[in-house]
Amino acid sequence: MQGNNEPKSFYESGGPHKGILSWIFTTDHKRIGLLYLASLFIFFIVGAAFGLLMRLELIAPGKTIVTASTYNSFFTLHGVIMIFLFIIPGIPVSLGNFFLPLQIGARDVAFPRINLLSWWLYMTGGILALMSLFTGDGPPDTGWTFYAPYSIRTGTNVSLAVFAAFILGFSSILTGLNFVTTVHRLRAPGMSWFRMPLFVWSLYATAWVQVLATPILGITLLLIIIERFFGVGFFDPSKGGDPLLYQHLFWIYSHPAVYIMIVPAMGVVTEIIPVFARRTIFGYKAIAFSSIGIAAVGFFVWGHHMFTSGISDTSKAIFSLLTFLVAIPSGIKVFNWVASLYKGSIKVDTPLLFVISFVFLFCIGGLTGLINGTLATNIHIHGTHFIVAHFHYVMFGGTAFAFFAGLHYWFPKIFGRMYSEARAKFAWFFLFIGFNILYFPMFILGWQGMPRRYYDYLPMFHELNLISTIGSWILAAGLILMFINLVRSIKKGERAESNPWKGTTLEWTVPSPPPVENFEEIPVVTQGPYKYE
Amino acid sequence: MEQRQTGHAAVNYKTYILIWTALLALTAVTIAVTQFHMGGAGILIALLIASVKAALILYFFMHLRYEGRFFKLAFLLPIIVFIFFIGFTFLDVFYR
Amino acid sequence: MEETLYKSSETYRDYTGSKMGMWLFLFTEMLLFGGLFLLYAVYRFKHPVEFHAAAKGLDTTIGAVNTLILLTSSLTMALSISALQKGNKRLSLVLQFLTILLGAAFLGNKYMEWGAKIHHGVYPGSEHLLIKGKGEILFYGLYFVMTGIHGLHVLIGIGVLLFMLIFTIRGTIDFENFVKLENSGLYWHFVDIVWVFLFPLFYLIT
Amino acid sequence: MISGNSTETVNNVFLFILVIAIVLLISITFTMIYFVVKYNRKNNPAPENIESNLMLEITWIVVPTILVLAMFYYGWSGFRFMRTAPENAMTVKATGRMWSWQFEYENGRKDAELRVPLGKPVKLLITSADVIHGLYIPAFRIKEDAVPGMQTFLWFLPDRAGEYDLFCSEYCGTQHSSMVSKVIVIPQKDFDSWYTAVAVKKGSAHPQGVKLLEEKGCLDCHTTDGAIGVGPSFKGLFGRRVIVIAGGKEREVFADEAYLKKSILHPGADIVNGFTDIMPPQSDNMSEEEISEIINYLKELK
Known about the structure:
The complex is a heterotetramer. Chain A has helices at 21-24, 29-57, 68-87, 90-104, 112-134, 150-153, 158-185, 198-230, 243-277, 284-297, 313-339, 350-373, 375-381, 385-415, 421-448, 462-492. By secondary structure, chain A is mostly helical. Chain A folds into two domains: 27-277, Up-down Bundle (Cytochrome C Oxidase, Chain A); 350-453 and 461-500. In chain A, helix 9 (243-277) runs antiparallel to helix 10. By secondary structure, chain C is mainly alpha-helical. Chain C has a single domain, classed as Four Helix Bundle (Hemerythrin (Met), subunit A) (Up-down Bundle), CATH 1.20.120.80. Chain C starts with a helix and ends with a helix. Chain D is an alpha+beta fold. Chain D has three domains: 6-82, Helix Hairpins (Orthogonal Bundle), CATH 1.10.287.90; 90-197, Cupredoxins -  blue copper proteins (Immunoglobulin-like, Sandwich), CATH 2.60.40; 209-300, Cytochrome Bc1 Complex, Chain D, domain 2 (Orthogonal Bundle). Chain D is 33% helix and 23% strand. Chain D is built from six helices and 13 strands. Chain D has helices at 6-38, 54-82, 188-197, 209-215, 257-265, 288-300, and strands spanning 90-97, 100-104, 110-111, 114-117, 122-128, 133-137, 142-146, 152-156, 162-168, 181-186, 241-246, 249-254, 271-272. In chain D, the strands form three sheets. A five-stranded mixed beta sheet of chain D has the order 3-2-1-5-8, with no helix packed on it. In chain D, strands 4-10-9-6-7 form a five-stranded mixed beta sheet, covered by helices on one side. In chain D, helix 4 packs across helix 6 (288-300).
């Protein structure tokens, strides 16, 4: 791209294949990261479209645009796509794939071919999930949780959707074991554990959760399929089965999955703050250990999804107590982030703008999480729009905002171009305002008692639903503006230098975009990651 | 290029055959013991013997004995996690 | 230059890394079966008497023979790696072949056992089973699902070992580069361990 | 600390956490914005690298720990109150089925709405006939799932007269959002007269067809006035020719007694053209006599 002395970028040398084949059969972690990014983008749009349609249906009570069963498959597919295809793989497979090897000074991940296989599985799962829309007896209508016995009884195409999620779980496991091995085996000389960037720490913690939690989901979903085809009766009370056991198994995975979604996002935030404050991170070890702490305690709190399900009161009390303990490491992170701004030299570029809004929205999500975790209040708001608001604040306001922050932050490194700063901030404004108008009313709706997954509602809930739907349009406008800016800048943006933000981690020492082999010579690391002197 | 080979020396045949004999003996012991009806204790003994067998397989056949610290410790992780899964599920089932 | 770079990453070998990946995969397998063992634990806790009664329908001898077969196959598997390491390719091949054979014998035995049960009308959702107590329905449900998924693993193991056999014949696997065989061995032993627990839990209920 | 009813209990815990949460949110946000403004690159070109501060770290581990433990304790004691039904509570059996509620009183009286006397604690014994439902009464801040094959419970003290909404809070299929009922709190005297006047002894009475349709939840999906709901209307159904899909093929059948009975017991066998197979079989829900009572009523519904 530049002079002849510079090694060719990974865009220009695609290995033995040509054209599109050089992408879909690549083993280069950077190309796989981009493959994932493009696929995530497509699935995100599909999921968001379902979300917008749901909001449109809820603009007024009664039937607005679709029938009840169509609406039910809307929220099922919105959930399945957003959770299994966007937010769980999200940051690790795209930004993580691209930057994990770069940040630890490696040429690739430990198992490049398994990395590619994992993308193929991801695509297979994604396509099967979309196929469940058009085949069989209609799209699944169970909600993304596939609760038995409804998921066993319904005539819709649950088996295919469940099988898709099973395959996606496989893909997630492969990514996890790849990352754990990479971090253990491929760190550059001198890169001791406490010299690793905190994004790497967060990916490492996440990878362990993926390895240890996902198989439980695998077997649970497999059992749903077996139930549907052979009627074994594990979750069917008429044959002695216990439907609550399904919920246990499901949440044993799906609660840790929440941390698969949020911990990498926290890692991105931790990368961005020191760079834009031009100072070292405050409390490196506290942040690193809190990643591990969240991942570890996250395994033992699944029961808080079941406070009204009929489980024993003893287990409710213990699960509630543990739930509060998992709040503490998240709190530590927030305090350390804020402290890292103290006496810095701060410039609020787009990545930091997203990070600041992340902290604000994540705090709302986290603090309302305390209300959910408390037994007495949980009983009232469980399964209402309060929960919907809470997890969208954490997942969208948290993970997705951090994802967007990371996209802007690493954009020059990935594409070798700069995006338009003014347009990016303009888009952020719509995103932030639209987000709050869309989701904040749901807290009130939930407290007033409007259950979630409701196609129709009482007239008393109308106004807030209307406001929320208007918010969804503003948010959509923000998303469109942001994507247009980014996509346009891939070709038309100004050329970016190798280190536009003056970052101190290893990925900024290589050209933008990086060459195929990342480093001409494997660097020798002599100090911690965020040294500004 | 660089080769980070950490293969261990070949384990001799005798060790393996010895372990195999032990495994068979333990199987025989389980079958013998469980012929007496002992109620709750029976399942405990059976599981205990099965765990010893599993440990032998892990330690010798699967070479954990010859591996580094990571392998020896990491393998405890899924076991601990699983014990917690069962334990916490039983907090519900037992007290329901 | 590009070509050589590609070659270099292909021949880059990290034995510990490969084994680490395999072990991590086995962790996921442990927890996959863990989910089933959890179901087993809960339902046996709820229906101890019925589980006992239902287990009488299983033949301890068949189970014991299968345990013997699988333990022996683990031995031949472990020996085949040692043989290869010592440079005795022929012996290693023979032992690998024996392992596959024993795996097939296990499956054959399982097939007969399942076949007899199904012939007697005992299979998930069968009328014969549904009139029985809930504990018995669950016992046989667990029996078919757990031994079924285990059997599937044996089948996959046989497939993998067949590849290893071919690789060894071709020399892709030799006494210097045997991590593939070792990883297949890890998988095979793991499947064996699962059976070590399944056997007392289904055939030896007192 | 805790007395009165569940509404107050939950509200108090909620307020306690909400105040702490708002204080935390405002102080974190304010501090963050203050730093961003104060240490802006223009004002502060030379940053200071502060790696960590042990005292500070300890503080913000210990203080939140104490706060969340307080929240846990407060929430847990409120919860204990909500899970300890008074001895003198009136027991009502609540059964959820797709997509209606049925409340059965101690004297055998059944109704689709929950009618309770003012000031007397009510204990609901909840179960489900098919899939998982959730019984939710927002006004009293209580909720518990109705699980098939299991009995769960709730209790509340209806200390204000009036009508309150009752929702299903666990997704249960197509008509989930219309599985709505009411809690009607009336003075003891009114309740007593309602309770005894129409009380039906089990097995001895012959309830009318329309009452059965209401009670069994049929009218949640079918109408008696010709309007199309989730299922076909009952009006003029008897004796008409109906096009049904059976085994993937279209077929015309005559809506006689046998057909109606089959459709009640095995709804999946013949699906009326244009509708979907979502009706649960009613074999556990209705007795033979009840079915014939309903069919007799449908005959008259021209």
